[in-house]
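Researcher: Sequence of IclR family transcriptional regulator follows. Predict its structure.
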Amino acid sequence: MPQILPTAQRVLQVFEVYARERRPLSNSEMARLLGLADSSCSDLLYTLRQAGYLLRAPKTRFFHPTARLLDVAKGIAAADPMQIFAAEALEILSRQSGESSMCAHLDGNRVQIFACQESPRALRYVLKPGTMVDLHTSALGKALLGTMDAKARDALIETLPMAAVTSKSIVDKEAFRKQIIEGREKKYYFTKDEGNEGVFAIGIAGYVGGQLTAMSVVGPTSRMEKNFDANVAIMLKARAEFFES
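Model: Prediction complete. Tokens:
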């Protein structure tokens, strides 16, 4: 089983300290802020300096990050790691379920789809990336709300218009809150004909790269109900494997 490496953690903590302090730091200051012995901190800063991530001022001998970390971050961002993650995750979900799958983020008090994998079946449900859907009528939205802390969740629910999209849409905020709380125990959420007639979805949510992210499998209600238990098992396995603990 993978283990956390303290040395790797320390390297990341160095840059987190600089982001917080926003100033050059001496070795002793950094050691104090990291809770390290001066000698251990000296080795750490020396290694980062030799790698080009820190520079040391000649007179004060204070250390400060160089632009190299920014350059590396820009290179990573240019490849859009979230899209890479979503493409691989959704390919797995659609292959295992036989249904379309989607990834989404919270955008204000709505949900924005940013990736979609189409089902290979002739009868399927698809939303294009960039599509906005309501929190209260989507499995994605319910899953996002269910992952938030109670205070943030309640505040967000208060902003929802709770408009009826279909006859099955939940429009009562208290009933909606109760459903979200119940879903936290099951660790998944579903919608049946709530956002679109004849469409059923199962959603999960968690953190990917520190960003709250939701995923769902979605398809015709009759087919999704028939395969409900199997699809729930697929989503719970994905929840355990894809999201950060």
